[in-house]
Amino acid sequence: MSQATQIEFARLVDSYYQRHQNALKLGHPNFRNDGFISTATMSGSGGFVEIRCGPAEYHAEIFVTTLKDQKRWSLADLMSIESIRNWMLQNQPNTSGKSRLEAEIDSAFSLLTEGLKGVPNFEWLH
Amino acid sequence: MNRILIGLLVLFVCLNGPAMERNIEFWQSSFAAETGAGVKYIGKLDDLQGIPRSQTLLDNLPNLGNARANYYQNSSVLRGALRDGYEIRDASAYRPNWSPDPTLLRPDRTVGQSFLGAERNILDNKGLILNPSGAYVPR
User: Fold this and answer.
1) pTM score above 0.90
2) N or C: which end of chain A has fewer CB within 10 A?
């Protein structure tokens, strides 16, 4: 990942973290860069959340690790839970005026704040 | 004398037959897989964890800033690896093209609709097929 992409990724994650800070019981993001792969990690009492961006597609990807069962949930895993799947399909973010990366990071934080609410595995997030 | 000639003829046919070609491919493939020399892995980022970086295409894929440019770069880098004679292996071979691969903006996307699906399509168009060991070999 170029330095410009790394900086933009960190800026966006920080910005959306601050917007959702009051709704989420997550610590400030820590950033790690591994060549072209950039990862933001935010820890909570029952696990941690990773938002990652890297080659080849440079999408923002979300992973939620739950400590209780040592499971790392990808978006596909999260969407195997019906309520989360329905939330994802019904709550697509407004992408107008935003870069794809920003729209994806916006969506990731909305998913954490609203989409995972009420799901027992992720109660520690709220 | 005739026996020797017949023996040599049989040996020649065996060495040049399709079975021998498959054997050579198998041994080349096994050697490449064991040593890592001449191998490049494609696959989802998570599936590439644990594979030496030099055996992936990741370091040739900087962010060009938009999806279309990144798509063409990805295809071009894979074609380059094929031209350079690398054996291509699929670290995500267990994920068929129809399996879900959602993104935050496209929750209904499948693997076949991702860059990996496009890479598999290129390999298919080049007449390559995934063998059980995870390597793409000529059909």
Assistant:
1) no
2) C
Residues from chain A that touch B102, judged by Cβ atoms under 8 A, are 75-76, 79, 88
pLDDT > 90: what percent of chain B? 68
Kindly state whether residue B13 falls inside one of the protein's structural domains.
Answer: no
Q: How far is CA B16 from CA A24, A111, B6, B139, in A?
A: 67, 59, 15, 17
Both ends of chain B: CA-CA distance in Å?
Answer: 39
Out of A56, A79, A95, whose CB is closest to B107? A79
| The pLDDT value given to residue B20 | 47
B80 and chain A in contact, CB less than 8 A? no
The SS3 assignment for B1 reads coil
Specify if B16 maps to a domain. Answer: no
How many residues are there in chain A? 126
Q: What domain range includes position B131?
A: 36-138
Whether B2 is in a domain gets the answer no
- This model of the complex carries an ipTM of 0.93
For chain A, the structural domain boundaries read 3-125
CA–CA separation, A89 vs A87, rounded Å? 6
